[in-house]
Amino acid sequence: MPVSLCGTWDMVSNVNLEGYMIALGIGLYTRKIALKLKHRKVIEQVGDQYVVKTLSTFRNYTFSFRVNEEFEEFTKGLDGRHCKSLVAWEGNKLVCIQKGEKKNRFWAHWIEDDKLHLELHCEDQVCKQVFKRVI
Ligand code: ECB
């Protein structure tokens, strides 16, 4: 059983969010604001249902899913697209494939050195974020 991702996590590093946002077609003004944010990630699990909240002073993004069950994702407040998303464990990584208009779109979460790691992929861009545990 992979180690639990649940908890409250605060961003400590954020590499190439700019490239990821450009790949998603986010406008210059929004990118400038988004680059300054420190995200908080809150991950909760009830049974096989996960809730992942990305919180910031500018916008929040919350979604919930069951592992291995495809669902409709609407990235409201991010790039505002609809995806058919599927989250599955790949070894110790929780991976979400986001099928839609954008090629090679997916993210992966895992724990390493007591930190929560996140890679966000879109087209040829990768944003790497690391979070430290708060609670
Ligand atoms: C929600 C906080 C960020 C708000 C930024 C606002 C506008 C920028 C628009 C698009 C940028 C795309 C992504 C921002 C980076 C991270 C936000 C959450 C990315 C994500 O999908 O995280 C997954 C994995 O934790 C859960 O949805």
Identify the CATH architecture. Answer: Beta Barrel
Which strand order does the major sheet show? 4-3-2-1-10-9-8-7-6-5
Q: What's the level 1 CATH class? A: Mainly Beta
Share of β-strand residues: over 45%
Fourth-tier CATH superfamily name: Calycin beta-barrel core domain
Class based on secondary structure composition and strand pairing: mainly beta
The set of bound ligands, ions and cofactors reads: ligand ECB
Would you list the SSEs in sequence order as H and E? EHHEEEEEEEEE
Give the helix proportion (percent range).
Answer: 10-25%
Pfam families: Lipocalin
Protein name: Lipocalin/cytosolic fatty-acid binding domain-containing protein
InterPro entries: Calycin, Fatty_acid-bd, ILBP, Lipocln_cytosolic_FA-bd_dom
Family: Belongs to the calycin superfamily. Fatty-acid binding protein (FABP) family.
In short:
By secondary structure, the protein is mainly beta.
Question: How would you explain this protein's 3D organization?
Answer:
There is one protein chain. With 135 residues, the chain is mainly beta. The chain is built from 2 helices and 10 strands. It has a single domain, classed as Lipocalin (Beta Barrel). 11% of the residues lie in helices and 54% in strands. Strands 4-3-2-1-10-9-8-7-6-5 form a 10-stranded antiparallel beta sheet. The chain binds ligand ECB. Ligand ECB binds next to helix 1, helix 2, strand 3, strand 4 and strand 9. One of its GO terms (molecular function) is lipid binding. InterPro entries: Calycin, Fatty_acid-bd, ILBP, Lipocln_cytosolic_FA-bd_dom. This is Lipocalin/cytosolic fatty-acid binding domain-containing protein. Belongs to the calycin superfamily. Fatty-acid binding protein (FABP) family.
